[in-house]
C-alpha cells in the first residue's frame, strides 16, 4: 500500500478497534470488553470496561499478553453474496471502466477479486431503482468489471445503507486523491474504509448489524509490520 502499512494489520485494526469483543487469553481466561489496540507483532490486546467471563467478575481495563482468539460480538460490516450483473455503477463514476489484469486473474482462479466491493441497496421508491439492478456501487468498479468479464455469478459485497448525499460523499472521499484513471477506486480501499468509519458517527451512515461474530486467531496469523 502507498502508506507503507501492512494491509492485514490495517484490516485487523479497522475490524476490531473500538468494538466490543470476547478475547480468549492464556490460562483459559476469557474477557469481554472494548478493544482499544491490538499488537501486530505479538497479538496482545488492550481492552476496557471488561468482564472476566470465567468467573463473572468485572475487572475494568485489561492487557491480554497472549491471545488465542478474538470474537467480535457485533460486526460493523454486512457481507452479502450478490450477482455482479445486479449491481449498477455509481452515477458519479464517469471514467471508462477497464478491468485490471490482476483482478481478472483472481476472478478466474479464485472466484474472488481480493476484497469486498462496497454497494448500497436501492429501495423500490428510489428514482434509480431497477428490478434487474437493485444495488448500486459506491466503490469497486474495476473489480466488478472483472467479475462480469469472467462471468462470475456471485461475489461477496459489503452492503451499506446510506442516502444519496451520503453515497456521493463516500464516493468522493474514496476518489479524492486520484490523479488518473489508472489510480481509480481499487487502490483506495483504505480511504473508503476510513470514510465509512468516520461517517458512521458523524454523517449518519448506517451499517446493518451482522448476526454472527467475526473470528480471528492472532497468534497464528499475525504478520510482522516490520517484515512486510
UniProtKB/TrEMBL annotation:
InterPro entries: ParB/Sulfiredoxin_sf. Residues 217-228 have a biased composition (Basic and acidic residues). SUPFAM superfamilies: ParB/Sulfiredoxin (SSF110849). Residues 179-193 have a biased composition (Acidic residues). It comes from the Archaea. Residues 175-228 are annotated as: Disordered. Residues 196-215 have a biased composition (Polar residues). This is Chromosome partitioning protein, ParB family. It comes from Halostagnicola kamekurae.
